[in-house]
């Protein structure tokens, strides 16, 4: 059995505090997955299935009962438990004993060698030699057609691409037939993505935020993901961006109270993450700016983030919230990396990239949006 034991060196006051509440505290701790034992001035703490929320309440009650101040041995125990980053979750408790037993695969290395990983990305034609973007395009926001402009860039010069493709980027339609509209839309979108893949570095990431048009039955997140799979990119994962009922309307039910054709409601959007050539991205430790707490929280792939509140103010109907971009950039890129948004809109991606000490290139076909993006960057506006 894998036991998790931590310890605290206590001073004289902390020892007195512990001895004062020892009997009462130990009983409460044992019932909540913690065993403590004092040896001289060292408090050994053994963790199993821990209900941290109950421990917090116990600490408050005992501290109040014995008139302990904010700094006390009970709080030190809780703080020490919080330093242990590896555990499982079961029934609301943190599982420390054999927390990863079910996840272990016997002879994993041999099995991987036999079956392979991301088989769909084998036999790609990607080159491994990375290049630098021309200096005249570094840290710029440009009004242009992305498909045309990206052809000016060399292969393998961008570290990370983060964007949300709009459903109208300057295309004009002479037909009202949906199939014509969507076929034309995806043809144009994939022409731009072809160039994005080409300019992406070996090991670079392309990350797409997309809200499928469920009411039109266009599963764009699947269509776009299949495109990247067919292009031999590696699927890194998927984040559910929970927008907290933002788009969940209660006036359209489809077939009301009938299985005939009920209309499903979604409160989230998808963020699809792909890698070029390798799951691992090169970078140095001194260019990492994500904290341990951020990392532990953000790798859980459901993010509850409220939508941007200034869309009317900036005249854009579908903006990223800055906190969403911050998570993407800190989790998937290093400082000084080059970040590209080929549908930059009013410039949230480029603004956050600059704030986080990344280089950036923002492209958008709308002059109005481009002007607003440049103004936000110039004046460091949210």
How would you describe the overall organization of this protein?
By secondary structure, the chain is α/β, with parallel strands linked by helices. It folds into two domains: 95 residues, 2-Layer Sandwich (Ribosomal Protein S8, Chain: A, domain 1); 255 residues, Rossmann fold. 35% of the residues lie in helices and 20% in strands. The protein is built from twelve helices and 14 strands. The protein has an eight-stranded mixed β-sheet, with helices on both faces. A three-stranded antiparallel β-sheet has the order 1-3-2. Strand 8, helix 6 and strand 9 form a beta-alpha-beta unit. The longest helix has 22 residues. The chain is elongated and about 75 Å long.
List the keywords:
12 helices; 20% strand; alpha/beta; Ribosomal Protein S8, Chain: A, domain 1; 382 residues; Rossmann fold; eight-stranded mixed β-sheet; elongated
Class per helix and strand makeup: alpha/beta
The CATH topology of the largest domain corresponds to: Rossmann fold
The CATH architecture of the largest domain comes to: 3-Layer(aba) Sandwich
Strand content: 15-25%
Oligomeric nature of the chains: single chain
CATH class of the largest domain, named Alpha Beta
The major sheet is characterized as: 8 strands, mixed
Contiguous runs where pLDDT drops below 50 for at least 5 residues: none
What strand order characterises the main sheet? 7-14-13-8-9-11-10-12
Number of domains: 2
Number of helical elements: 12
Distance between termini? Answer: 50 Å
List the helices and strands in order.
EHEEEHHEEHEHEHEHEEHEHHEHEH
Q: What Rg is obtained from the alpha carbons, in whole angstroms?
A: 26 Å
CATH superfamily (homologous) name of the largest domain = Vaccinia Virus protein VP39
Number of strands: 14
Mean pLDDT: 86
Helix content class: 25-40%
The global form is elongated
């Amino acid at each position: 059995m894998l036991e998790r034991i931590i310890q605290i060196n206590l001073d004289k006051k902390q020892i007195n505090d512990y001895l004062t509440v020892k009997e009462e505290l130990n009983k409460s701790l044992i019932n909540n997955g913690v065993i403590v034992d004092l040896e001289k001035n060292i408090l050994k703490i053994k963790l199993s299935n821990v209900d941290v929320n109950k421990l917090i309440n116990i600490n408050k009650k005992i501290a109040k009962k014995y008139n302990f101040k904010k700094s006390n041995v009970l709080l030190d125990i809780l703080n020490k438990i919080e330093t242990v980053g590896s555990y499982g979750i079961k029934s609301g408790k943190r599982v420390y004993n054999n927390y990863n037993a079910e996840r272990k695969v016997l002879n994993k290395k041999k099995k991987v060698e036999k079956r392979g990983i991301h088989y769909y990305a084998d036999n790609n034609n990607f080159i491994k030699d990375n290049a630098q973007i021309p200096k005249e395009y570094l840290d710029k926001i440009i009004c242009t057609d992305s498909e045309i402009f990206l052809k000016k860039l060399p292969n393998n010069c961008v570290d990370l691409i983060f964007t949300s493709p709009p459903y109208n980027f300057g295309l004009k339609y002479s037909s009202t037939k949906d199939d014509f509209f969507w076929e034309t839309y995806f043809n144009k979108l994939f022409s731009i993505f072809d160039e994005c893949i080409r300019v992406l570095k070996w090991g670079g990431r392309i990350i797409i935020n997309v809200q499928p048009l469920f009411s039109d039955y266009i599963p764009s997140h699947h269509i776009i993901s299949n495109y990247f799979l067919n292009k031999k990119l590696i699927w890194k994962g998927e984040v559910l961006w929970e927008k907290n009922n933002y788009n969940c309307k209660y006036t359209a039910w489809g077939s009301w109270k009938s299985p005939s054709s009920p209309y499903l409601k979604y409160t989230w959007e998808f963020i699809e993450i792909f890698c070029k050539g390798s799951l691992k991205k090169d970078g140095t430790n001194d260019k990492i700016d994500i904290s341990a707490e951020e990392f532990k929280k953000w790798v859980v792939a459901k993010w509850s983030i409220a939508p941007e509140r200034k869309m009317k103010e900036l005249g854009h109907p579908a903006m990223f919230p800055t906190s969403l971009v911050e998570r993407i950039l800190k989790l998937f890129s290093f400082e000084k990396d080059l970040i590209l948004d080929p549908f930059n809109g009013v410039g949230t991606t480029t603004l956050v990239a600059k704030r986080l000490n990344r280089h950036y290139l923002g492209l958008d076909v709308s002059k109005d949006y481009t002007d607003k993006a440049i103004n936000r960057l110039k004046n460091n506006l949210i």
